[in-house]
Amino acid sequence: MPGYNGDDSLVIFSIPDPFLFPEELTGYSLEAQAVAPDRLTPQGDSFAWIFDADLGVVYRRGAFVPEPDAVALAFAAIATLAILRRR
Fold first, then answer.
1. Cβ contact 33:42 at 8 Å
2. Closest Cα partner for 13 from 43, 58, 66, 67?
3. 33 vs 54, which has greater pLDDT?
4. Alpha helices in the chain (DSSP H)
5. What is the SS3 assignment for 24?
6. Distances from the Cα of 46 to the Cαs of 15, 27, 43, 64, in angstroms?
7. Number of folded domains that form the chain
8. Residue 46 sits in which domain range?
């Protein structure tokens, strides 16, 4: 399952290992993809993040600060779904 790193500057996801060695038990590794400040647009190429891992979980400390536009985005999504249902 893809997810963001602690400061939302990378998207972390797993890929099948291109080369399997006996010590690589999972058969997967984690890759990282840098993203623009909008948190959606890829920046450059992805790169190896953690070898022999299939699931990356990021622990964040501190108070949760929601995305400022999250409410507006939710309303836009609901409106779009309502329009698509009418078709």
1. yes
2. 58
3. 33
4. 70-86
5. coil
6. 11, 18, 8, 27
7. 1
8. 3-86
Residue 54 per-residue DSSP state: S
Which is higher by pLDDT, 23 or 79?
79
Pairwise CA distance, residues 84 & 87, whole Å: 5
Contacts of 15 (CB under 8 A, 6+ apart): 28, 29, 30, 31
CA distance to 14, 32, 72, per residue, from 53 (Å): 8, 13, 36
Task: Choose between 36 and 55: higher pLDDT.
Answer: 36
pLDDT on residue 34: 94
- Mind listing the pLDDT tens digit for each residue in 9-45? 899 999 888 666 666 577 888 999 999 988 888 999 9
Which amino acid belongs to residue 28? Y
